[in-house]
Amino acid sequence: MAGQFCVSITHAKDNADKATVGFVIANAALGSEKDTLVFLSVEGVRLAQQGYADDIHEEGFAPLKDLMANFAASGGKIYVCSPCFKRRNLDGQKLIDGAVIVGGAKLVEFLSDGAPCVSY
Asked: What does the alpha-carbon distance between residue 51 and residue 107 come to, in Å, rounded to a whole number?
C-alpha cells in the first residue's frame, strides 16, 4: 500500500451531502491504493446501523448505501465512535458490514504515523 488515509464523517441524514461526499472520497482513496479508514462520530454514527442509509441518495452521486457497501467490500475500515454510538442508544447488534465500534485510541493509533484525515 502507498500509505494511509482517513475520512472523518460527523453527519448522516442531518447533512446527507456531507455523508455522501465523505464516502465518495473514501472510495477514491481505496482506489488510489491507500489503507483507508472512515471514522464515524457525532451524528455520523447513525450510518453504521443496518438500513439507515437505504434512502439517502444525493443528486449526482451513487446511493449512499451503495457507496458504503462498495467501501466495505473493497477492504475499507469503518470505525464507529463508541461514546457517540452509546449516547444515541443505537443497536450494536445491527451494524453494517465492516463497521467496528471503537474508542478514540483506535483513531489516534491509525493517525499516529501521519496519515492525512479529511472531515465531512
From this structure: 25
User: Mind listing the pLDDT tens digit of every residue in the chain (120 residues)?
Assistant: 469 999 999 999 999 999 999 999 999 999 999 999 999 999 999 999 999 999 999 999 999 999 999 999 999 999 999 999 999 999 999 999 999 999 999 999 999 989 999 999
> Any idea where the domains of the chain sit in the sequence?
4-115
Question: Around 1, how many Cα atoms within 13 Å sit in the side-chain half-sphere?
Answer: 13
* Homologous superfamily in CATH for domain 4-115: DsrEFH-like (3.40.1260.10)
Q: Give yes or no for a contact between 72 and 95, defined as CB atoms under 8 angstroms apart.
A: no
- pTM of the shown model: 0.96
DSSP secondary structure of 55-105: G---TTS--HHHHHHHHHHTT-EEEEEHHHHHHTT--TTSBPTTEEEE-HH
CB of 117 within 8 A of CB of 95?
Answer: no
